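Exercise 3.2. Students should predict the tertiary structure of the chain below and write it as structure tokens, then compare their answer with the key that follows.

Predict this chain's 3D structure.
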Amino acid sequence: MRFLTLGLLTLFSVGLLWVLDTHNPFGSPVPAMGRLLNPVTGFWANAEAQLGFPDQQLQLSGLNNPVKLVFDERRVPHIFADNTEDAFFAQGYITAYNRLWQMDMSTRKVSGRLAEVVGERALASDLLQRRKGIVKAAENMLKAWENSPEDSKALHAYVAGVNAYISALKPAQYPLEYKLMGFKPEPWSALRSVLFIKAMAEDLCARNEDLAATNTRTILGEERFKDLFPEYNPKQSPIIPSEVKWNFAPVKPQPRVEVAESILSGLFPDQNIPQPFEGIGSNNWAVGAQKTLNGNPILCNDPHLGLTLPSIWFEIQMQCPDFNAYGVSLPGLPGIAIGFNDNVAWGETNVGQDVLDWYAIKWADQEKQSYHFDGGTRQVEQREEIIQVKGRKEPVKIQVKYTHWGPLVFGDSTNSPYYSLAMHWLPSEGPDKRDHYELASFIRLMKAKNYADYDAALTGYDAPAQNFVFAARDGDIALKVNGKFPIKRKEQGRFIQDGSLSNNAWQGYIPREQIPQVRNPSRGFVASANQHSTDETYPYYYNGGFDDYRGRFINRSLEAMDSITVKDLMALQNNPHSLQAEEALPLLLKLLPRDQLKESEKAVLKKLEKWDGNYQYQKTEPAIFQAWFDSTYVMSFDEIIRWRDSVEVLNVESWRYLDLLDKTPNHAIFDWQKTKKTETAADLVLSAFQKVCKDLSKTPAQTWRTLNNASVNHLARIPAFSHTNLPISGYAQAPNAIRNGHGPSWRMVVELGKDEVKAWGVYPGGSSGNPGSPFYDHMVDQWAKGEYNELFFMRNAQDTRKAQKSVWSFSPKGR
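Answer key:
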């Protein structure tokens, strides 16, 4: 009877699998469930035992010599190779082993190929990406990289390693998300690696406010606009200290030509183009030996990016005769982006300068095939883009128009307000000819021994522009605001420009030797947190989005510190104090008329008066203060904010808002438009506070943890594979700049001792991209607590100072 029951259950299971496999009852977003539930090849095959990571010996095509990979207790791979190409091959293989689906989806998204695997719901995103010209820009960059031996060899070795892994995959071994989504991996390519660079550029240097600024100036008028939107905060503590003098003759741009503003008149409707996340930022600094307890330079870096599972970073060590480097890489690119070697350490934060401008096109014919330019006409170029869509028999085909400025992001058939605006974006320009580019910059940093090597490595790096911090065992510390920067006239690129005149083009590029940089400043440290690169004495104009609080707080903190230890700097990375709150709260308290408060309101006030400005997750004070601050802000600028539903407008920067509260509380901007009374700042502060107290009387105050919802979400937003509402203190304007799904994506501290280099690091995730692995998210809680791992910087493959959990040996196939 037992065997009969087993047979019937088996028949039922086989029948159920067949039904689910051929009839998907859940619609197109869900895969054929039979394949997913198959006990041999389905998601069960992705489960990993807690300790199951056995030694392996693999023969792989594409290798020159044997390679050894040693895995430590956190499953971080340590690569030991006889030459650089084999090291990058092994990096490609082990990155794909851990992060293949992540690599696939991130490059599909930027190149407009999501609809191939998810169907119609991704078509709008794909159309936008194709119209931005991202793929064309990547193709041009790849051509340049192919002419650079250093870039090309590393890239192709890495690609070969990725494909060595993919070619050996069987359906049971596909990453879980492929099974969930019902498609299979395809071979990797050099172009897809370049597309990853473009994805980073889109996140880090594609934000722009041309449309919003143009609309806001039209709404407010020139005088009020200049009053509310000055470009430089007088309290700013710039990246390059004021002691640095600009001992060069700058290249002067041509004078502005008066142009007809007819094509720029009126308001531009909502742009309908998603912007990169506002306020993406990072911290880095290096302190000189004279300021540390042990007499060693210490370098720190914590890039603030989207927090995802799998993590944007992949921790790795790579050793060969040319380098021995440890740090984090970007899945899809060879090399180490942030890290250290036996002699130096390096890291980056985003620069924030605006390198994307919009130009209004004046058409010369009804078909919009030619446009006016300098008294004549120019023809548009057209490129056909073909988009495969899952579930459609025929692909979607579009013609993207290009002017000499760049692509017309929306075609004229869409009736979008952007159909006559051309996008001029620096990363879309073809690179000039030189011996190396962005990729080789990181490879050269991996080899660097001193400041001269660091300086030479950065000369080939264009975009996205980064503040490269540096420290060396010989005592040097430095920071360079590195990238390719256009020469602009005052306010050029701040507003939409007339595209019919060549004089509105960028006036060339700032010479490399004239970009802001500093080496061994007298204050004993260098630091950046996305604030302005320089003070106003720098002879070149630049605009963009810049931090106003973290940079000042970090500079103030480092200035006051002495006998600094590694733990001191870990504490600074995790510091939840907001300088914005420190400056805003006294102003609000000063303006609040206490004699008009009820007893219940005075009790709330008492709590805020005792608050120290630290955004601790278990406290309610940060949530109460934030509600008061935000409510007062919205009431103050209601005449601008009311336009948001119809057109793109600027937000008054918070530092300017605080300046108005402090110096001109009777400013006309504080008149609340919905009343007949003429309000002052004090009136709005009182009304906002009373509103907050009224809300608190109905609903108990939330903790900052609940309001901030610090989260690390799966790339596909699958809740079961995500961590939400984490207990972590911090705020966007604090050094620990955690908010919702953004924050410190990798914390690293490196002490460059005379005898050895020691380092610590952590990121919210794990080495594996497989949700069925114990190494998928094992560092999330540790990261949230502000704890670090001491990094096992192995001297060689036989280094047993710490336990080696498994060893993989690669050998060339056929030998």
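Discussion points: Residues 1-31 have pLDDT under 50 and may be disordered. The chain has three domains: 39-203+802-812, 213-290+341-563, 579-702.
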